[in-house]
Amino acid sequence: MAFEKPYPILLSLLLALLSHSVAAQASKNLPWGSVLTAGENGSFWPSSSDDYAFGFKQIEKTNGFLLAIWFNKIPENTIVWSAKNDIGDALVVSKGSKVEIKSDGWLQLLDPKGSQIWSGGNSGSGDVGYAQMLDTGNFVLFGQRSQPLWQSFDHPTDTILPGQVLNSPSEIVSRYSQNNFSTGKFQLRLQEDGNLVLRTTHSPSTAANLPYWNSAALGDGFSLVFNQTGSIFVQSSNKSIAAKLSLNAPSTQDFYHRAIIDYDGVFKHYIYPKGNSTSAGSWPMSWSVYSNIPEDICSNITDRQGSGACGFNSYCTFDSGMKSCLCPYGYIFIDPNDVMKGCKQNFAPQSCNGTSSEAHLFNFTEMEQINFPGPDYDYFTPVGEDWCRQACLDDCHCALVVFRDGECWKVSLPLRNGKNVSSFGGKALIKIRKDNYSPLNPEIIYVKNDRSKLIIIGSTLLGSSVFLNLLLSVAVCVVVYWFGHSNHKKPEVGSVKPRMNLRNFTYKELMEGTNGFAEELGRGAFSTVYKGVLPDIPGNLVAVKKLKMVNENEKEFEAEVSAIGQTHHRNLVQLLGFCNEGEHRLLVYEFMSKGTLASFLFEGERPSWYQRVQIAIGTAKGLLYLHEECRSQIIHCDIKPQNVLLDDSYTAKISDFGLAKLLMIDQTVTTTAIRGTKGYVAAEWFKNKPITMKVDVYSFGVLLVELICCRKSFDVNVEDENKMVLIDWAYDCLHHWRLDLLVEEDKEAQIDIKSFGEYLKIGIWCVQEDPSARPTMKQVVQMLEGFMDVPNPPDLPSFANEC
Questions:
Q1: Does 304 fall in a domain?
Q2: What residue numbers bound the domain in which 194 lies?
Q3: d(Cα 683, Cα 676) in Å, to the nearest integer?
Q4: Active-site residue among 51, 264, 303, 638?
Q5: Is residue 576 located within the same domain as residue 647?
Q6: Any bridge partners for residue 430, and if so which?
Q7: Is 746 a catalytic residue?
């Protein structure tokens, strides 16, 4: 018995000696004294299944590290917890920092000099027996009797995981942005009264504004539960469910789960198929939003204090579970890398000095369905739109007016709570300077020498005199004209054209970027597309479209390019810039890595049913934006699989929109020559009838049927001639309810045959011969997403047989 006492001491010494070699080994029991060092290989402790890891994670594109927990098996390595300082910001440490499990109950973070910068644990609670990174994503310090002394689940940051419970009062707080782990402006809080709320903070203080969503559950002892089956709910003390947040999610055995108060203010439940899952079906191998609260954050945040869901002077759009913040026309982001800082006017504001009215120098840009619901400072009704416009022009404090059905609201800077609301029924009229010239926008002068600089400086110094400003403006125009023509109108490389957020490239720059237009990506009747590399473009890769036929009017060309450049939507290919130099007309687009939908759909293996449905919905939403939501209505005129491109995540993006007007500017809507592609062209093109947005609806209907059937609209290689025209054959199958004939080789579609039938009916409605019988794209989107019933379509139009 006398020999028993030394054994615990010897064991502790052995464990301490072994601690230097435990990094990156399968985490079972990590003894006190275990150390990790930031920047070293294997500076983490994985869970036994390797699903999670605890350690140092380098922040993307920086030299900083976070002490964090992350998903360890998926390429994204998504962070779910990180150590934070006293004000709630994530602690960013440098290479050489260390974390150590202390024997006295602490988890200690030290800088490279050995000074403590953070600690977690319970001093004096008893010696640590060991630590462990659990397969639940919870990092725990255990006592010598295996009792938990400290665990990351009790100190959540912005994320909760299955098995995690938050008891009232508690909260999680969003990060500032995707890669900025500082404290954001959104909170999810389980209050003392049991009510679960989402709210913004009154930045820069941490005081909270009124909730923009709440569970309406009140009572004592409530908890927010994320259980092991993947359901999220508020639970009362008697274990009953008081509020349902996300139920019936796919199994946690087949999917990773996480729920986060995201940096955009939406509480999202994400899922990700596990690599060994055989029942994940058609879910993409990426994080997918299973549910989100609220459904539309843009409409939910209406506080009179603060900027709203986005920054001041910007407006919010919400699409496919993602929030976007945009600047109104005439405004630019204060910091393009931080859109939450809001926007600023890109022109000199209307003067209020009282010496002279500047009303004649300003005009309005209409933004349909855009609202800035407060606080407005003046209101009139009933009035006409012209009266409303003039009232704002005569008021130097008025930045915009919102007009709807005889109601007129005046709004001053800063603009707040801006949002795109399809049900609004009104519009915002943004007041901008007509010529957009001001000392705030000097890029309209090509700064080539000291004389140009003197012009800008002189304009600033003489700004107090209206007469001298007018005189100077004339002089500036003369000088700009002289510089432009004496240099053969060669714009500065990379300059930004006024009134456009687009780069103005030189032909030489694009020639070099495409290596002499060497790599062709595709071609059509009016253009050829080449792959290019431009170092100062995000991602470097671009697609350069060389137009073969364009109107020679330079101003009209740039006006149409400007209209295209002002479109911003998740499902549109982004125009980055253009070249308008002599006979050369080129457009520069973002590069789409997965190519065309035609290649994806008709070449290689059959895409999954889920992917095809998401592509159909994305394409429909892109068309809806072009038809009803962008500033100038755009009819595409050539919707087909070759003009739908796919990005890295297989998100559908429409290309070539607006090209019809670029190529044929001088033609009217009713007399435009036939555009489009055989099999996708509506009847009105052949009957000299007005061309409206319903031609795009027709083409989309053909595209939709191609997507769900995974077959070309017209195929001469089909043995049965009754099946050559897909629309005809599909309608016959629908008429006799033999949908099985359309999905004979598509097991996924067979499983979801009811949805297949609904989508097919939508396609048939879209190809009706009478344009007025076709739905709008808004109705199409609502039917595709299940928010509107799909009635049975009438007989198939005879025109479809001619395609």
A1: no
A2: 159-294
A3: 12
A4: 638
A5: no
A6: 365, 400
A7: no
